[in-house]
Amino acid sequence: MILTTTQRTLIERVINTIETGKPDGDYSNISIFADGPHDIRQITYGRAQTTEYGNLRKLIIMYSEQNGINSLALQPYIDKIGSDKLLVDDAVFKKLIREAGRNDPIMRQIQDQFFDEVYFLPAMKWADDNGFTLALSALVIYDSYIHSGQILWLLRNMFKESPPAAGGNEKKWIREYVNARHDWLSNHHRPAVRKSIYRTQAFKEQISKNNWDLKTVPILVNGTNVSP
Description:
Elements: H1 5-20, E1 30-33, E2 42-45, E3 50-51, H2 56-64, H3 71-74, H4 91-103, H5 105-129, H6 135-148, H7 153-156, H8 170-186, H9 191-194, H10 198-208, E4 220-221, E5 224-225
Antiparallel strand pairs: 1-2, 2-3, 4-5
């Protein structure tokens, strides 16, 4: 997947807006959703939002190893993240990570590195392995990794088009995948997930505009202009 600097920047701004409502991202953002294991409440945190029962522990380890301003204070929490010791109501933990995201350049640098290594690069490897080349395809695939950690098989089984590497049409695959994901989100048993259909709605709008290279601006996400 070869992206121009402008395309890559725009993709990040779309994801930031989807996750925190701000094109530049909100490194201190904390949201609470009942979308953890067995629908328990959990923390989601950071510029593009990682979860307490997902990769938040990895992010905090990376930060603590770089001696950020709250590194020492956060170290006792590392083994608790993702365990049966819920942190969703721990005011001190939330204060520490919020302060780090708001005031510490090290946390912002670590988050940029973290979201790149844990989500963006694996998403682009999947795109490359499956023959995708278009910028809008990169955005759709990256968003799936941010939101679900992968391209979900249950969604791929909802339509017949093959990926480009297997002889399919790239634009048709993306269109059908976005439609399948939109339907899945719309009917999800978790209310918070149902509300997230603004993600796929934004992609459907760009597909309808034939904006496969993401050069047609402005691009709106849930009413926000994400264009640099």
